[in-house]
Each structure stands twice: as C-alpha cells, then as structure tokens.
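User:
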Amino acid sequence: MRHIIEENFKPDACYAGLDRIQFAGLYRRGYRLALLDLDNTLSAHGSYEADDYARQCVERIHNAGMTCWIITNAARKRGEAYARSLGIPVIAMAGKPNRRGVRQACEATGFTEEQTFLAGDQLLTDIWCARRSGCLAILVEPRFKEEAWNIRMKRWLEKPLFHRFHLCRVSVGNGAAAEKWREIDA
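Assistant: Predicted structure:
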C-alpha cells in the first residue's frame, strides 16, 4: 500500500512557485514540453487574463527552448481566454487526474511523456495526473490563499500525504521556516 501511495501522489520535485523553477536546467535534462495548471499555479481562481507573473513564467519556459501548454480542469471558455492572453495552447476540462489531457498535448506536439513535465499546486489532481501519465510531476506552492470550498476540501484530504512525504506548505505549515521543498538541481 505504501508503494502505491508514493507511486501515485509523491511529487518528483517541489518549488515555492513556478518562478523558482530552473527551466533551462530541465531542458538540459531532456524536458521539452511544459504543462502548467491554471488555477492557483498560473492564476487566481476565476481569472480570464494572465498577469505579469504568468507572462514571465511562460516567457522563461519559451526562452529555455521548451513548448508550453496549459492543462486545466477549468471550463473551456475561461481556459481558452486565459491561454489566448498568453499566446499558448490549452486543454480545458482536462478531467485531471485523467491522463487524457497529457496524452492529447503530447500527441499534438510530438513529444513523449518522458520529455514532459506537469507543474501544479494539487497532489490529488496535478501530481496524480503527472504520475499516472509518466511525466515529471512538479508541485508548486499555491499562489493565493483564497480558494473555493471544493479546493479547500482537497487540501484537507491532501494533508496526510504532505505529512507522509515530509512536505510543508506555508499555508498549511508553521510559516516560511517550515518549508521543505525538494527542488531539482538544474
């Protein structure tokens, strides 16, 4: 049972935010496709347009030589509007942790799952999807504290996994000193 839990929910790497990831280092390690979650990874929940943070992260991914897509469970209209504001493709209503969205992005770009990473803020959707798909699973700190009730429920369900994997988040831990993020050396 322990093996199954770690195999499905343990991130390969953790970062305090997308802006902390060394995309050039991931490129050198063979990663070519960056799949980014939308809500609380790139944007505030409900956003239709990218802010400077999201634009800079996508620009850094492109400058590293990688292709960037959004993969989100958000509604198609909002996902498409947000992606349009960044000039990148989106797979909306992806049904994460279902692997369908990752497969669709890989097929469209010609990259394999082994050349792909998925970065998101939730273990039960983003990380599980990445692990099920065979791509690198990167957990990032949620950008905002305000979240919908259903996301707060998922956070509550994730707490035992955070304990098990010795992960802490500022929002669920004891402050910034409690952070234990496993970053990939670039």
